[in-house]
Amino acid sequence: MHRPDLLIVPGGATRVGLGLWNSLPATLILEFGFFIAGVVLYSRATAPMDRTGRYALWALLVLLTVLYLGSLMGPPPPSETAIAIVGIAAWLFVPWAYWIDRHRRAAVA
């Protein structure tokens, strides 16, 4: 997605990137495509053991989608501190996802 600014090796001169951030439609198609593919793979590979395993997963997915769309349509962050706080708060998604995963089991093939 990045513009060509990612180094192949530290200190090297070669920088790579697809530059898709220059095209909002291409970025949205690819990012939502990867997100949907991940959701489909996970939901087919696991099955809910209880109501928590069913509804908490969809609540997380809805919230992530709303936050992503809000980041696209909302105003830019007011300060670097706000970006840092949101970045640190994003770590709360890790225990939430772990809790959800504890309420799901591997699906029978």
Identify the notable features of this structure and list them briefly:
4 helices; mainly alpha; 109 residues; 9% strand; single chain; two-stranded antiparallel sheet
Q: What does this protein look like?
A:
- With 109 residues, this protein is mainly α.
- It has one domain (6-106).
- Helix content is 60%, strand content 9%.
- The protein has 4 helices and 4 strands.
- The chain has helices spanning 24-45, 51-73, 80-89, 93-102, and strands at 6-7, 15-16, 46-48, 104-106.
- A two-stranded antiparallel sheet has the order 1-2.
- Strand 1 and strand 2 (15-16) form a beta hairpin.
- The chain is extended.
- The chain starts with 5 loop residues before the first strand and ends with a strand.
- The model has no long low-confidence stretch (mean pLDDT 90).
Q: In percent terms, what proportion of residues is strand?
A: 5-15%
Order of helices and strands: EEHEHHHE
From the N-terminal CA to the C-terminal CA, the straight-line distance is 35 Å
Overall pLDDT level = 90
Radius of gyration: 18 Å
Low-pLDDT stretches are none
* Integer tally of domains: 1
Major β-sheet profile: 2 strands, antiparallel
CA-based shape: extended
Helix content estimate: 55-70%
Q: How does the helix and strand content classify structurally?
A: mainly alpha
Helix count? Answer: 4
Number of strands: 4
Strand arrangement within the widest β-sheet reads: 1-2
